Amino acid sequence: MTDREERIRSARFPAGIPETWAAVVAAARRTVADGLVVGTSGNVSARVGNVVLVTPTGVPYDRLRPEDAVGVDLDGRQILGELRPTSELPMHLAVYRATDTAAVVHTHAVHATAVSTLVDELPPVHYMAGALGGPPRVAPYALYGSEELARGVVKALDGRTGCLLRNHGTLTCGATLDQAYDRTAQLEWMCRVWLAAASVPGRTPTLLDADQLAAAGGRLAGYGQPLG
Q: Is pTM beyond 0.90 here?
């Protein structure tokens, strides 16, 4: 028996693995349906106890089954499944080790990727930036799947729940997959708004100041309500 097989055999998995894997797959499929990624680009993960469930590399999301669950520990050692984890695993694990987040969504959204090539921080053109902790920063370009990229993302996320990746895409995190995904969608929308406003000849978009964003962020913190 190989070391990997022994780890899988002896691993003690927390409750909720099947349900969380189903949520990971559903979120990954949404990224394709909503046009945030093309093909198998982008990736999604969620943490359950000491296990990080993550989409596999190079597998279309619509083909993933319950028995295809891929899980690693926080050191990146595979303890669940036969498929290889996403090549962006170092970035996901770096975020989990640096924060108390429970879910991560990474996309190659068109407008956000375009903005990542133009600025070092998304200009605060809309108050929803407050929901991300402030204007999202742009992590420096680094080769995908590299530790350098992972370090840059963690730095860009300091005090934030979302960031852009230079010439690459977006990463958002949250307490749940739904929250992380909603932040991804809002980030892409804000990038689209800024690009549209900034493209008007002879006009400069008005921007919100730090106090305005902080006030919006405080109000947004209590936004939403559970369904009965």
A: yes
